[in-house]
Specification:
173 residues; alpha+beta; 6-stranded antiparallel beta sheet; 4 helices; 46% helix
Length: 173
């Protein structure tokens, strides 16, 4: 019977030596130079950036939830909340607030677009839209800037609406 631990050490040492002798693979050999893979990776990075922005918003307003899904053939990243509010003369109601980022499927040539839908306290705001190429660095920067601008627009409108609702004081008759 052999000593198992000694065999493991021997295997590990020989593998470490083989790894030192390996020639690193190129992007082409790994398939990373293909445009489609680059576009999908860029889109994935964009989704991560949008999620980061949403999570920072949640740090300020923790009752919101991030959602992922599909709608009309588009990938949707959403931030939403059904907010209970007491309204004078109407009693307790829920107001729906959300921002949806609808990401179009990535075209073979890198064309891509994002549409945002915003609803603040059941009131739909004008949509936002941007298009460009995931293969173009300036377009990628524009997509990220658009995401941040839309999140700031959402935050401004949401917190202004909350301030309006919190200042409304019921009158007694």
């Amino acid at each position: 019977m052999t000593n198992f631990r000694d065999k493991l050490k021997e295997i590990r040492a020989s593998e470490a030596e083989r790894a030192r002798q390996r020639i690193p693979l190129t992007d082409h050999q790994l398939g990373l130079d293909q445009p489609a893979e680059r576009y999908l990776a860029a889109r994935g990075d964009l989704v991560k950036e949008l999620e980061r922005l949403m999570n920072e918003f949640i740090a300020e307003s923790p009752m919101f939830e991030v959602g992922h899904g599909f709608f009309e053939g588009k990938y949707v990243l959403s931030l939403s909340y059904d907010e209970p509010l007491l309204e004078e003369g109407r009693g307790m109601r829920k107001h729906f607030t959300r921002i949806n980022f609808l990401l179009d499927p990535c075209a073979a040539d890198g064309r891509f677009s994002i549409t945002t839908k915003l609803t603040i306290c059941d009131r739909d705001l004008p949509k936002g839209y941007i298009e460009g190429s995931l293969g173009n660095d300036s377009d990628l920067a524009a997509f990220q800037k658009f995401g941040e601008e839309q999140m700031l627009r959402f935050a401004s409108d949401y917190f202004a609406a909350r301030l309006h609702h919190s200042q409304a004081v019921p009158t007694t008759g």
